[in-house]
């Protein structure tokens, strides 16, 4: 049986010069391209298109990452505020529950009836006393009234 012999043929890339042999092909990418060989002869539209593309990518990145992060921080603040409000409401509910428990006893019922309805036990007498009316502060000018105004001011401040 006869074995086939492998042969390798090296071909030069078209458009390469003899002086380019042994050099990296990346050199072709870094050399300026002649205007006649360019896809577009003017680079301005490509630059404008690139800037517009970057602006669109920036807007999308802001919409996907920036706005949700800001919303998350606002929600954290709102949660802290609502937790404080919940704690206050739970405290008020606990106070009301203690009041309900107290009023559920016989002594609590009697106390509430005395305060709210004026209930009296047998052989008790209830005397209702009204508060004294407020003293007038617009007294006329003159000798006895200045002294009275000073006395009212001293009693009102204490």
Low-confidence stretches: none
Count of alpha/pi helices? 4
The secondary structure category is: mainly alpha
Distance between the termini: 127 Å
- The Cα radius of gyration reads 48 Å
Task: Estimate the strand proportion.
Answer: under 5%
Shape: elongated
Number of strands: 0
Mean pLDDT: 81
- Could you give a short account of the major beta sheet? none
From the structure above, extract its key features.
mainly alpha
Summarize, please:
The protein has 158 residues and is mainly α. 58% of the residues lie in helices and 0% in strands. The protein is elongated.
Characterization of this structure:
The chain has 158 residues and is mostly helical. The chain has four helices and no strands. The termini are far apart.
What does the secondary structure layout of this molecule look like, with pairings?
Blueprint: H1 27-30, H2 44-103, H3 106-117, H4 143-157
């Amino acid at each position: 049986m006869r074995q086939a012999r492998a042969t390798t043929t090296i071909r030069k890339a078209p458009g390469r010069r003899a002086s380019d042999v042994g050099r990296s092909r990346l050199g072709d990418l870094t050399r300026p391209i002649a205007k006649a060989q360019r896809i577009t002869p003017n680079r301005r539209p490509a630059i404008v298109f690139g800037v517009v593309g970057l602006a669109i990518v920036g807007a999308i990145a802001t919409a996907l990452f920036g706005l949700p992060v800001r919303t998350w921080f606002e929600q954290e603040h709102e949660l802290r505020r609502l937790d404080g409000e919940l704690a206050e409401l739970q405290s008020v509910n606990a106070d009301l529950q203690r009041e309900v428990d107290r009023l559920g006893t016989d002594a609590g019922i009697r106390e509430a009836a005395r305060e709210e309805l004026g209930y009296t036990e047998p052989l008790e007498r209830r005397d209702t006393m009204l508060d004294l009316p407020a003293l007038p502060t617009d007294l006329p000018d003159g000798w006895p009234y200045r002294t009275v105004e000073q006395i009212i001011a001293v009693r009102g401040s204490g």
